[in-house]
Specification:
The chain is built from 7 helices and 7 strands, in the order E-H-E-H-E-H-E-H-E-H-E-H-E-H. The chain starts with a strand and ends with a helix. With about 240 residues, the chain is α/β, with parallel strands linked by helices. It has a single domain, classed as Spore Coat Polysaccharide Biosynthesis Protein SpsA, Chain A (Alpha-Beta Complex), CATH 3.90.550.
């Protein structure tokens, strides 16, 4: 199988059917149904997200659904999805439909050129000034602190070569959202081939954001310091070998 697309979902009953259907249609433009799978990681949703996914599964042979018994957050949800995926390449897209599934084929084409990681970046971001400012702060922090060159670290649309995943050794699994930063920091450390492409971005029209700007900031600072300390200690140890 060529590609697995993971959709982490928590209380997204208003958009889950559309994101599944449109992801299916977009990928059918460039490959056969048997060449890809869509995996919904239902993170203990309390609404009709699971019910609607099961309705879609009756129509789509390549849709797989996994549900957590408690809310794990993005990091553990994605890690579990990576383990369960069958594709040679693994991508993920948020379930809230702020990202356009029509961009998936472009990212997939790019990763097939030999890149380990292809990241989307929101060129024309449809968010409030507050969220844009927070995003600027996170990207600046990651660039200064870790040297990440990707311009939109927390973008929820990425595709990865699956054989590259075990080399990253993602460590901070208790963090709900830090995975984007840790993933890219470790990818740069391994000298992975990384690129980014502009993608469409939309206003959130349904439901509420599951990400608290303040909690995300505090989590980024905490785990950022832990990760930076780990890197420094490893370099010091290497010097004294």
């Amino acid at each position: 199988m060529k590609l697995s697309i993971i959709i982490p979902a928590y209380n997204e009953e208003n958009t889950i059917k559309k994101i599944i259907q449109d992801s299916q249609q977009a990928l059918l433009q460039v490959m056969q149904e048997s060449d890809f799978e869509i995996i919904v990681m239902n993170d203990c949703s309390k609404d009709n997200t699971l019910k609607y996914c099961e309705e879609m599964q009756k129509k789509l042979k390549n849709l797989r659904i996994f549900s957590n018994h408690i809310n794990f957050g993005k990091t553990l949800n994605l890690m579990r999805g990576f383990d369960l995926s069958h594709g040679e390449y693994v991508g993920f897209i948020d379930a809230d439909y702020q990202y356009d599934p029509k961009d998936l084929p472009n990212l997939f084409k790019k990763v097939q050129e030999g890149y380990d990681v292809v990241c989307g970046y929101r060129k024309l971001r449809k968010d409030s000034m507050y969220r844009k400012f927070m995003s600027w702060g996170f990207n600046t922090f990651n660039r200064v602190f870790f040297g990440i060159k990707v311009s939109d670290v927390n973008c929820g649309l990425k595709i990865i070569k699956k054989t590259s995943l075990p080399k990253l050794n993602i460590k901070y699994l208790r963090a709900k959202w830090f995975i984007d930063t840790e993933f890219l920091v470790r990818a740069y450390e391994k000298n992975f081939k990384i690129t980014e492409l502009p993608i469409n971005h939309y206003n959130r029209r349904e439901g509420n954001s599951k990400v608290s700007g303040l909690k995300l900031m505090l989590e980024t600072l905490l785990y950022g310091l832990l990760l930076k300390s780990e890197i420094i200690i490893r370099k010091v140890r290497h010097l004294f070998k």
